[in-house]
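Input record (one chain):
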Amino acid sequence: MKALKIGNLTATTPIVQGGMGVGISLWGLASAVANEGGIGVISAAGLGLLYSDYSHDYNEAGIWGMRQEIRKAREASKGIIGVNIMVALSHFPQLVTTAIEEKVDIIFAGAGLPLNLPSYLTPEATTKLVPIVSSARAAKIICTKWYSEYKYIPDAIVVEGPKAGGHLGFKHEQIEDNDFSLETIVPQVASEVKKFAEQHNCKIPIIAGGGVYSGEDIYRILSLGADAVQMGTRFVATKECDASETFKQTYINSKKEDIKIIQSPVGLPGRAIGNSFLDKVSDGLCRPKKCAFNCLKTCDIEKTPYCIMLALYNAYKGRMEHGYAFCGANAWRCERILSVKELMESLRAEYKECAERSL
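The corresponding structure, as predicted from the sequence alone:
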């Protein structure tokens, strides 16, 4: 595999570990991926619950928790560490500012268009900014806005297809439509971004994610114009993943027909493993009486069918009867728990075998 270069950063293996929220990807997983030459990513979502011992104020605890996670990852790895911060989070500005202060290598921002992300940079900032999009149109909007408003060019762009886990930037009817598949949108985004990059005499790497499972998948997606891939699901089924063993076993025990598209309180469709909790949600039995966290800009307590933050926190802890697991379309293919090292080695070997067959 060709190394991924983002400015002065070089990932020897062009694999970005997806930022999976509410305790699934913390410093343990991120540092392990970084140590194997990929880019390890900490998710900011839910840190206020994980660090509630520090403060009963959810946002205050989350900001402090982000500092601790970045510092722990730095202590455990000399590789590239990023954070994933959802635009939909109510304390998005404070989390971004904190990540920049801590000199995290990269901020990945999605679940909404991060149109003002460069405004948080300081003159001494070293952090790279990478938006997450689901279409060439969104990539063009961000590139144009960032340059016209801030004279800033994205350091890379992640394009996520409809087979991704968690929140999806697609309408329900687009998820199974081949016109919106990753294989369709990667060349479109690559072409649009290449035009912009050529105008400004620079290179903007494309990172493609959503349903990427094997080394063969990596080879295929890179051949479409991507410079790297983003993978989340495969890293859940690793020893270093920060989730509970019960959460990981949910992936191992799942069948293809268990994977569901649900409507999230964030306002987007999402992909998850169906279970009894989601059945109760469908029956209207999990409606919250009050908002305990004020964690999402888009959550309306009067209309939300359940508290997503509490549900995902319960799942992270292994209390699946009170929560559920987000996942990618291929979660059912996970058969056993590997170490990150074993997984990365197998992906590189599969990629090499596929590359040699194509010669």
